Amino acid sequence: MEGSLNIIGAALAFGLGAIGPGIGLGILIGSAIESTARQPEAAGPVRTLMFIGIGVVEALALFGFVLVFILQGA
Amino acid sequence: MRPSVLAAVDYGGPFEVPPIGELFNLPALFTVGGVDITRVYLIVLFAVAAVMLLFFAAFANAKVVPGRLQAGAEAMVEFVRDSIAIDIIGPQGRRYAPLLTSIFFFVWFNNLFEVLPFVNFPSTSRIALPMLLAITVWLLFLILGIRTQGPVTYFKDILIPPGVPKGMVPLIGLIEFISTVIVRPITLTIRLFANMVAGHILLTIVFIAIHSFLVLGPGLPVGLVVLAISPLAVGFELFVGVLQAYIFVILTAVYIDGSLNPAH
């Protein structure tokens, strides 16, 4: 892998692209924990909604990860 | 020297990360009628055989008072049916429980091969498999929506959220169209695919590091640290395998629910 602007772009894509989903996941799971603590009988539906949210938010971070390999090959 | 990751045990050089492509492009073992049989092909076949074996062994002679295997399999099937299908889709969810159970077990067993000793390759890390499942789910929820609500009502339902001022409808409709009809199968594919790719790269690097630092001598403390980390990595991979199967099935249920029961 020789040095090229592609690699810097790939690293930036992944690094900067993981900030948003990281914060988002923290907020999401934190509020799921808090709402379970407030109302333990809502734990089941809250857990289901949390997993749906995790799946959607984490996909954004993974787009950056895939972009690294696309940029590496280009 | 570039290691062959099929036989990382034979790797005999200093620690070096192999080119990522080599971790995933597996050579064909043999050819049958023009089709290359690679390890991935065999892994998928074994996963299908394992799922079928599990269900046949558990439910072939189903007893009223179940033995342990039947009880365990019943618990898992009930989990998918009750807490995914019926919880999200409603009473009609019972009809889609077989599909959801099949997708869940198929994806889960394919992900398990990542941590299986001597195999250590997830067949879901080749994009064709998640893409096939995502396209199936995509066609399913589109056709279900069009058949249940009629094409005009369905597209009006998903494209135009309530409370949108009339002038913004074209822009909002375009955004919603892209986000629902175009992006959903892409995210379904990439979510499962990239999670498995990342896990495979992590595990491969951990195992190569253990071998090259510990077995080959120099760097004993580093090798011991990596050895201590490796159960965590494998455990994390196990967890991610189940979690990604669960997320795939839950999102399928959510999309089916969006097609059957109009959201607005």
Could you walk me through the main structural features you see in this protein, from its secondary elements to its overall organization?
The complex is a heterodimer of chains A (74) and B (264). In chain A, 12% of the residues are buried. Chain A has 3 helices and no strands. In chain A, helix 1 packs antiparallel against helix 3 and helix 2 runs antiparallel to helix 3. The termini of chain A are close together. Chain A is an all-alpha fold and 74 residues long. The mean pLDDT of chain A is 87. Chain B is mainly alpha-helical and 264 residues long. Chain B has helices at residues 20-24, 39-59, 68-89, 97-112, 128-149, 151-159, 169-215, 220-260; strands spanning 28-32, 35-38. In chain B, helix 5 runs antiparallel to helix 7 (169-215). Mean pLDDT of chain B is 86; it is low at 1-9. Classes of the chains: A mainly alpha (74), B mainly alpha (264). Chains A and B meet through helix 3 of A and helix 3, helix 7 and helix 8 of B.
